[in-house]
Amino acid sequence: xxxxxxxxxxxxxxxxxxxxxxxxxxxxxxxxxxxxxxxxxxxxxxxxxxxxxxxxxxxxxxxxxxxxxxxxxxxxxxxxxxxxxxxxxxxxxxxxxxxxxxxxxxxxxxxxxxxxxxxxxxxxxxxxxxxxxxxxxxxxxxxxxxxxxxxxxxxxxxxxxxxxxxxxxxxxxxxxxxxxxxxxxxxxxxxxxxxxxxxxxxxxxxxxxxxxxxxxxxxxxxxxxxxxxxxxxxxxxxxxxxxxxxxxxxxxxxxxxxxxxxxxxxxxxxxxxxxxxxxxxxxxxxxxxxxxxxxxxxxxxxxxxxxxxxxxxxxxxxxxxxxxxxxxxxxxxxxxxxxxxxxxxxxxxxxxxxxxxxxxxxxxxxxxxxxxxxxxxxxxxxxxxxxxxxxxxxxxxxxxxxxxxxxxxxxxxxxxxxxxxxxxxxxxxxxxxxxxxxxxxxxxxxxxxxxxxxxxxxxxxxxxxx
Length: 466
Ligand SMILES: Cc1cc2nc3c(=O)[nH]c(=O)nc-3n(C[C@H](O)[C@H](O)[C@H](O)COP(=O)(O)OP(=O)(O)OC[C@H]3O[C@@H](n4cnc5c(N)ncnc54)[C@H](O)[C@@H]3O)c2cc1C
Hints:
Layout: E1 17-21, H1 25-36, E2 40-44, E3 59-61, H2 63-71, H3 75-81, E4 88-93, E5 99-104, H4 107-112, E6 119-121, H5 123-137, E7 140-142, E8 147-151, E9 156-159, E10 164-166, E11 169-172, H6 179-185, E12 191-203, E13 223-229, E14 232-238, E15 245-252, H7 269-272, H8 277-285, E16 290-297, E17 311-313, H9 315-318, H10 328-343, H11 352-381, H12 387-398, H13 415-421, H14 425-445, H15 452-465
Helix pairs in contact: 1-5, 1-10, 2-10, 10-11, 10-14, 11-14, 14-15
């Protein structure tokens, strides 16, 4: 089992007080990273309980994410609750149970990308692990606290109870439809239904022998199974050491709303009937599904509140990903790691705004690029039978997945590990400081400040020396 080693972390010489709105995965991850960087943290979460019970969900932890969890010293705890390590994605057609092809992430490739790996975990367990780690790191986490308004200029957060809190920085981790996102944008934001609904359900491991097709005929616990049908897809993966499966069914948008906080009310039989006998059988074995409608959200130009320079958004509040996205969790953990890293260099109050803009500089381009891939990937899941579906299936059958790179089906290519998995969030944050952070700091201190050439020369010498 991989060790839960943690890396040495820089700590600020100027601790400030962060108030984080939202104790979902992003808020808790930011709390860990900011505490590790030496800052004071209060998290305000409207849920009464961090683990409210109900459906446990499923999260895919990608190599770029497990790398951060290792640096935070959390992998040991994760390994007590997660699936075994995964290395393959297998594609089938529901119709005729045809095996289309597979994509394997070899040990060599993963090693080249910095040693991260794939594991899967229930959403509830991941949240509980992050919660425990945030508390252990010294964050104050207040549940049952609904944030009703924010005043960026005075950095004041007001709760529905009437209580007010003043912060050094307000971090909006309150999700895609949260309050802070609107405060940062300075207006209401739009979202539009975007093509599909994700239905989430689960299958106990003891039932897998009754529908072996869901694991390709045997309990192959090293693979994710993607099964395409006409306009929809059944996606399954284990989420704990027992091998219980999370099952996502991506189906065309039917006009009905729903989100992760909803009740599991959907009878899966109605979704899969007529596709394959084993799917009809599966529908009798799984609990009712949660309906999560997918929306395209307006892209935020800025993640930092411009006028105050002291409010920032992270995770889904900054960059809402398509539902069931592969990198949703990787991106929010990277956000947290970068935020913690850039704030570990803080030495005085006047640097706060620059540092928040630095966080945006480091994260926004990557998140936009990954978002684009995720939208495309989700579209492949719900292709109706026709020329595009045939091209997708043929590419899989040919097993020349690397040729997908650059084509309209450019997923699961060799480029993927290099672009996505090799990223090291800590290094990205440190690099920002060494290139731009120090530069801005010098420029701010020097009078007159408009000497770009001189400043650039000094900084490159400094960077080489360090
Ligand atoms: C309960 C739940 C279960 C989920 N399960 C899955 C899953 O199994 N698989 C999957 O792919 N995705 C799941 N998701 C979605 C996924 O967690 C998010 O898309 C992604 O993790 C982004 O996380 P986030 O922390 O940025 O935002 P969110 O997960 O949306 O978290 C935002 C948090 O902010 C809190 N909040 C919002 N407004 C306020 C306010 N005004 N005051 C105080 N607190 C506030 C919310 O209660 C929530 O805890 C789930 C989301 C939730 C909320």
